[in-house]
Each structure stands twice: as C-alpha cells, then as structure tokens.
Hints:
- By secondary structure, this protein is α/β, with parallel strands linked by helices.
- The chain has helices at 5-18, 24-36, 40-45, 53-67, 72-76, 100-110, 127-135, 151-164, 167-170, 200-204, 225-232, 234-237, 253-263; strands spanning 78-81, 84-87, 117-121, 143-148, 173-177, 188-193, 238-247, 268-273, 279-285.
- It has two domains: 5-68, Helicase, Ruva Protein, domain 3, CATH 1.10.8; 91-285, Vaccinia Virus protein VP39 (Rossmann fold).
Amino acid sequence: MTRTIQQILQHASQRLARSGMDTPRLDAEVLLRHVLGIDRTRLFLRYPELLPESDRAVFERLIDQRLNGAPVAYLTGTREFMGLAFTVNPGVLIPRPDTEPLVEWALDWLSGRGDARIADIGTGSGAIAIAVAAYLPASFCGEIVAIDASGEALSVARANATRLLSPERTRYLAFVEGSLTQPLARPVDLIVANLPYLTPAQIAENPDLDSEPRMALDGGVDGLDLIRRVIADLPRVLASGGAAGFEIDPAQADEVSALLHSAIPEGEIEIVEDLARLSRHVVLTRS
C-alpha cells in the first residue's frame, strides 16, 4: 500500500511506542529527517508527499535497529550539545544535555581568565573541551588539554574539533591519550570531568545503555572509582585559586563533596543542578 510521508512517520511512531520507547514520535522524526536530509519544517511541508521506495527501505531499517536498542544518536551519527552537532559512534559516550550546566559553569568561571590552563579529564567525543573552546572569548590565549584513555575516542574528538572549530580555536586545544590526570605534568587552573559514575547495577537496570562503551559508564562498585582517583590527585594538579567540576549521580553529591573537602580542605564547594534541578555536578574552587 502506498503511504504518504505523514502516514509512514505515524506508523513508525506507533511501532516504537508499542515497544516502550520513551520518545517514539521524536525518534521516528529524527531518523526520517536524517534519511531525507531535511529539517523539521521541511519535513512537515512534505507530509502529503509519497516517500521514495529507496528512502523508505533505509528508514525502516533504522526503525528496526532502534527497536533492537540502537541509540538514535549512533544511527544518525550525530548528537547536538551546546548548540554544536557532534559526531558520535559506539566508541564514545553520547553527550547529554545534563552536562551542559557544567560547561556553562566552566565558561562563567573562566570569565576574565584569558590565560587559564584547562584540563578535560575523560573527554570522550570532546564535547566539553570543544564546547568550552567554541564559546571562550576571542582574546583567550590559554590552553585546553583533553585527556582520554581511549585512542578511538580521541580520534572522534579530534575530528569533531577540526569540523566544529575554526583554526584559531583549535590552536589552543590539545588531545592527549593517557589515564586520568597522569599526563598533567604541571598544575592547571581548571579541571572539568564527566567520568564514569554509574554502578554495574545501574547499568544492568538500563538497557538503553547497552550500546554505549562500558568503560565510559562503569564507575565501579559505588560509581566513584575514577572520580575518587582524580580528586586524590587534585592537591598536585590543581593550581592555587583554581577550580574543578565533576559530573555525578545526584545520590553521590554528599560523598563527592566529602572527598573534595578531604583533598582540598580550604576549597569552597558548590552544587550545580542539571536541567531537571537535580544535583548533577559538584564544583570546587581552591582558595
């Protein structure tokens, strides 16, 4: 039976809804726009049209993959973060909107600090480091070091930087393969880190995470293995007057605050909420 674009979209949305997807209509729409290479307005205008059979076949394959648990971002190869379209693949964690307040906090802290040295620990797709680089003032003359233990992730991050940033912006951005803060030979002024903070039980309870790299999710028994190691090294790697911000599970806020106070007793600790008003980031300023 011949169907219009609107009917095909409606049918795909119903299939996704029956499978229990949280956002069936949005998922179907994003995938169809990806196949057609058009924006939302153009898709709406084309509702009465018939969909070419070749495009329909591609779209239905993507819907089948989504029904099997593949994230929309991996199917389209992109995810928007801080207004920038990042390339993503199964080798990197998909950037989430909940991380954006951490970037906004970092940019606010960097105001007036044009020569700051910044480290993004566990950069993944490069989302935090690249977003910071994109929105810093043109007068910035410091350095951003983006560190990750995964060479595959760093390849994605470098490609994102080349595609999303001007040459003037990329000149102060360096990607380094290594473990956590180990590559930092001298103190930095700002540390931002979205490290793995989920427990194995939390990962097992969320099948939507099955496609994402385990090493970017699993924080150990209490979710704090890597965060604890970075905080323990803060006395060495964080400059006097510097600041550090960590993304966490909201239930970890008190424990991470206590770890920061133990490592830097003179530090001032604050909680930065995510878009749902949950305690998603713990930040410290070193006096």
